[in-house]
Fold this protein.
Amino acid sequence: MSVKYVGKGSFKFETAPEIAAWASVGASMESQGPLAKHFDYLSDDAYFGQATWEKAESELHRRVLELALGKAKISAAELGMIFAGDLQNQCTASSFGSRDEGVPYFGLYGACSTFAEALILSAMAVDGGFIERGAAAASSHFCSAERQFRLPLEYGGQRTPTAQWTVTGAGAAIISAASDRSRGISEADGAMIYTPRVTLATPGIIRDAGIKDSANMGAAMAIAAYETLYRHFEDTGRGPNSYDLIVTGDLGAIGFGIVEDFFRKSGTKLTNYNDCGLMIYDLKKQDVHAGGSGAGCGAAVLCGYLLGEMRSGKLNKVLFAGTGALMSAITSGQGESIPGICHAVAIENLPENLRGSK
Amino acid sequence: MSVKYVGKGSFKFETAPEIAAWASVGASMESQGPLAKHFDYLSDDAYFGQATWEKAESELHRRVLELALGKAKISAAELGMIFAGDLQNQCTASSFGSRDEGVPYFGLYGACSTFAEALILSAMAVDGGFIERGAAAASSHFCSAERQFRLPLEYGGQRTPTAQWTVTGAGAAIISAASDRSRGISEADGAMIYTPRVTLATPGIIRDAGIKDSANMGAAMAIAAYETLYRHFEDTGRGPNSYDLIVTGDLGAIGFGIVEDFFRKSGTKLTNYNDCGLMIYDLKKQDVHAGGSGAGCGAAVLCGYLLGEMRSGKLNKVLFAGTGALMSAITSGQGESIPGICHAVAIENLPENLRGSK
């Protein structure tokens, strides 16, 4: 048995499974944001044709998986496993959304870090030789999340400045054993098309900064994000500048600032760091307070804009760090603080001419 | 890359990771049941010294992991990953229970099948060479589950005959790369002690029989259990009689009868089939209606009685099939049926003298 771990808490995917295809869906707020053109499907109807917000989120999940399968030109029957999750109680958006696929199903709960968790586990399943091909998916819905984690929308409560806007969206990716095209394909016009690959992972350790305000999730998750990124750099010997982009899932303005600040205090100025919660909305023009959040935030930005930029070679080396707040309305109601988690995964284009990069 | 899958939806663990240690905890109903002496810890206090039932379940989770680590003679720092889940909204029993362990954490939601899911994923992580050692854990609590899935206990509703009693309990197992002792150790008195190993898995596909009664979960899950067991036998070429015991997680009397019936109609009489929900309580003497249920049911029976019987060689080949109902109070309230899932995992003693068995 070959041992794949790097440092204490990171490991490499020896075969570097490819992300063969990906898709993202969103709703009206996402269609007004700066990344609108990178979505595969945007709906004006927050119900996605369903009777309730919860059913809408299942439909969103079903649809994003179908879109990703279509782009991979495969049927669900060709998937060995689906790894999926969402924020609803008992993760029903994903289980009901995958109910008719007929594929072995692993339900996950990593709060808003779920997509990164799914990406790591599906890449492990492929890299370990357990399946040829799997899917990772995650979703969130503003209306189902608000009434689940905070207050019913009908209550009309005023949002605090630290609050974030839960993305109504989902992302899905098809993870496959590396193929001939993994090293890039030259198009008729000479342009290269790359198939990004999953190379390294640093799974998250639960960290609790003692924050109890469920309208300030960014601050609650920031310590986990800092700690995972720090461990990733330590374990792999890669500095922050090894990446074209380091991107957290949904810290928003508050959490993003805290992570930057932690690194600055440890002597590192991050120059290539961003957060999906800051990218998906225009914080100046859209009324989203501290930015986007939700399991669909990182999933949709990665499976839309970011992997698209990797496909064209504008980005070649991305560290995607999904962030999650592991609380519930019950734990908050019982006076508990909010534990955070952050799973980091390195995604790289690995054609011949980029192999030299470490 | 070696391909490990067997048949369409099953795969083998080439290195057959060992279950190095295991532990189970329960409360008063479990202490009155026939398996009481096989628990590592039984509490008369349903609160486990905490202020709320939800905090009690976190404590139960923390304690069972600590007991398993103690029996494996290792500290949490020696774990590469924890795979865990429970039935609470947003799976907070496990995340709060693992909050202080400092170990990479993968939160799972497979409803009552969660322990089987955790066992498969931790064995995949070890077998794939990603970690040397991981933990699988799952819990449930009668009081937190009742108010989450059905009605608040204070309501005092009468339970229907098909209802099951959610186990207040948890199980944890330490999964390690196979070691010298994996083949069995001869004790001073000549008796052999075995270390059971994880050899095959058939992950579950979501199946929905259209049942909507959340007080009849056994019936809702039975079709998934039948289908997974049937696929396991087909994929692996092993018939039911290859096993000393085939055991589902928590189908109870109703679901157990349906699975037996399905097999009988397909021409197979199961002679070595049981269900953890029928084993953990005395259905004649204890007021549990159709039997035990919950993520803690299968986890505690496996990590107490069953693995204990394997350790002494009374059982050598067990097919553990965790069963889960992937609904929530919200989906039931919105008129949805209850999708079921069942993850099967083969656990075997593999000393030299048993190698011949297929």
